[in-house]
Amino acid sequence: MKPVTICCLVVWCFCFAVYGTHKFLHSSPHFHDWKKLYFVYHWPVTVCKMIENDCDNPPMYWTIHGLWADKAEDCNKSWHFNVTEIKDLLVDMRQYWPDVLHTNRTKFWKHEWDKHGTCVATLKSLNSQKKYFSKALELYEKLDLNSYLFKLGIKPGGNYYQLSTIQEALTSVYNVTPKIQCLSPEQGEEVQTIGQIKFCFTKDFTLRNCTESEVYSYAAHENMLFGTEDLSVCNDTLTNYPSHV
Question: Which of 6, 70, 130, 193 could form a Cys-Cys staple with 183, CB 3.0–4.6 A?
Answer without folding.
Answer: 193
